[in-house]
Amino acid sequence: MSVAAPPRPAPAPDRRVPEQKAAPPRSDGWRWYTLLGVLVGWLVAWEFLQGKQTLEIGVSENTDFHRWLNGIRDDVDAARDDNWFLQYVIGGISDALDWTVETLQELFSVPAFPRPVPEVGWLGVVALAVLAALVFAGVRIAALVAVSMLAFGYFGYWEESIDLLIITGVAVAICVLIGLPLGIWMSRSKAATVAITPVLDVMQTMPSFAYLTPLVLFFGIGPASAVVTTLIFALPPLVRISAHALRSVSPSTVEATTSMGSTSGQMLRKVELPMARRTIIVGLNQTTMAALSMATIAALIDGPGLGEPVLTALQSLNVGDAFVSGLCIVIMAIMLDRTTTAISERSDASARARQDPRLRRIVLAVGAVLTVVAVYLSRTYSRFAAFPDSPDLGDPLSNRVSRATNSFVDTFGETTDRFKDFVSFELINPLELRLAESPWWLMAGVLVAVAFLLGGVRATASTMICLLIILGSGLWNETMNTLTTVLVAAAMVMLLGVVVGVWMGRNRRVDSWIRPILDALQTMPPFVYLVPALALFSTSRFTAIFAAIAFAAPVAIKLVADGIRGVSPSTVEAADSAGTGRWQMITKVQLPMARSGVVLAANQGLLFVLSMVVIGGLVGGGGLGFLVVSGFSQREDFGKGLAAAIAIVALGVMLDRITQHTAARYGRVTTR
Amino acid sequence: MARVGRQTRWLATLSVAGLALVGCGGGDIESNESASGEDCGDFNMAINPWVGYEASAYVVGQVATNELGCDVAYKNLKEEIAWQGFGSGEVDVVIENWGHEDLKKEYIEKQGTAVRVGPNGNIGYIGWYVPPWLAEEYPDVLDWQNLNSYADEFETSESNGKGQLLDGDPSFVTNDEALVENLNLDFEVVFAGSEAALIQAFRQAEANKDWVIGYFYEPQWFLNEVALQKVSLPPYEPGCDADPEKVDCDYPKYILDKIASAEFMDSGSPAAALVEAFEWTNADQNTVATYIAEDGMSQEDAAEKWIEDNPDKVDAWLA
Lengths: 672, 319
Hints:
The structure holds two protein chains of two kinds. Chain A is mainly alpha-helical. Chain A contains 28 helices and no strands. The relative contact order of chain A is 0.12. In chain B, the strands form two sheets. In chain B, strands 3, 4, 5, 6, 7, 8 and 9 form a seven-stranded mixed sheet that branches. A two-stranded parallel sheet of chain B has the order 1-2. At the A-B interface, α12, α15, α17 and α27 of A face α1, β2, α3, α4 and α6 of B.
């Protein structure tokens, strides 16, 4: 989970934020005392019970459940050629996807044998992309697309970049084919909404890493799996936002059309879809960004694209290469983000009306002609077909970054090491001991109590179900290890979020120069963070935590800043005139008033951290993430990896529910 | 409207003329087929994540590209994932396979998607290694029975109060977790994540005289830079590693072999014959791996340099 601002449209239009029926109880004090009591009781009990009934299992040990999953894997493997469902349905989908991606690749990115180059060379591809931008998004975006596409080539990642565009494009196209009808259905039927929403919730809460293993089992390695993985992650925003957009088409318009005797199909095509178009394209934007970030992770299962060089850089500790390929991903993210945004703005009739249609037609005609020429040239001459090797911007940049990193690590290596050790020994290890070395029933009790005190009855119910699933996965102990890492990272994210968020919220100038940095950090796919973190802290849980903070802090900071900004100016003024000091203003007025923003920041921060901590399994993150990684590296660990994926989902849903319900309960305070 | 239409038509005519003009120049893109007599087609080479493997794979791949006119695709995949690719056609060859008896049973005997193509000439050793300074100052650390007395020295923030045994990529062949348990060692296996991370850790340990013990293997170019010393484990006997949860002995000597997709070997591609004939020594592989890892050459350049220096060996594969 990653992506451009805000990845999960923060207060998503129809995300069912649980409603608290009654206003929150006026005196909430008893909750806090009880919470404190529960925590103290837990720590005391831990002193006596530590190390007992922790449900720890050996690293190479499998439970019956894991062996059963292994058995399923073997059955699927064996049935691949006889079972009609696997052979024709799954196999058919898989072949169709592979064929589509490979055809597009031969057309645009990889040599189309026997040609030593693709059917359309780089010049033709650039021209086609620019023309498309010109038609749908305007001149400025066309210029941005041209510069971006050339940057991919001159940085040395032409083929990988086009591959990534292909995977993203195919996934987004399928998202539209599936997502739009689903959105329409949801906008018309309450039952559909009730049935689909929880599925979308799980799709978005589930860390991407978790479903790689089962997908490979069915779709094999390669483009098909990459597309399906990307699809799962990228579909929900489009469905949610298009359902929301259709629902908010003004009822009076709909009524008017119905009274004129339109059929429901006519109304959809002629009235509702056009009126909702702009918002739907916003959904398309979110979906595209999500697809882009996921497509890079698909490199782990042989998905073509820019994820491959990042992964290779991770394996060879090459910070420079990771930086340059990461940079290409960021450029692509900016390109796609601006393009889809521009499309949504242009879909307003008023924006189109400002243009001179004649001029536009001429520009497009010239563009089309030049494109045809470019495509022709790129099919005919090798210098227009294979991207030129020089000037090579990538290698010098990569070397410079590597050198800079090395000298930084040489100079500060000891300091960063000491910092890592300090945090590990003083914070992570003690907390891990408390969480993972408590008897399972004690820990479960504490979690249920916390859920009840913070989130109320419904949060408690969800927590209990999730804990049961985690118990069933046979990985209780590992889950607690992961929870430790998540809590440490989330605490640091919240600290950063509140400090920087308050600073930004109180000062517009600070906001205007920090925000672009946060935007850039958010566009970067999670993978990319791992490489510099690895260079600084070598493989350890702290490395994963560090990467998770870099990944999650921007969202938390923005939400807090927006919350502070949302506090009504008159309140602040009133407090000001009452002679409130700056510190008091922040702690007594602004933060309490912005409480809902802070709790929402905690919710998003936790989920972002969880997804990153899991990816941190690649760099020593330990716990469930590591089991998922080893699950698709070692045959006998498959079942355990799949069980770990299930446990991750349960953990994610649990954290989400507790914080969502807490947010719903305490969010009300500000609106009073 | 009419005016625009005329303009468009005019432009279209111009462009057709332009195209015709360009067309007269003729292209310079030649298809690969004419470059060599035989039809080789696609050749998908799996690249497992260690430099020695890259060396072997790229030497074979470059010979196939340059001599046989194959369309070689290198695919960065971990070992077990690469095996899954035999069935789907994603992967044609794994050029350096370390044992993997379980995978052979599954994919060669049961599914029949893969076949053995014979040894590649390399002999593999896996074991636990320490940096030279440690072996010199504390020679008894080289016997596994003494490891527990040094466990404290090997402790790190990640090792849970025990000694740290550093492993590589989780996908590498390893019995270390079972070994630690079954030999009652007071150690915890911690995964460095990659070959590069292992090498980095050993290099720093030698430079700063730190205590590090870790999983490592030969053929390995890095041993020429820092001569890591191998720790002796209880000797290997056939069958002592049969149950992965109960291993209590050293790793066997691995005759590294080549595995290929059954379909590919039956295809009659000249690349299949090349794979069948390919064989070289540990020293050969270390030479190419050093070019890549130490001298920073690209894999292709490193392979081609070796190919140029060893024409007789290459000719023998092609004969």
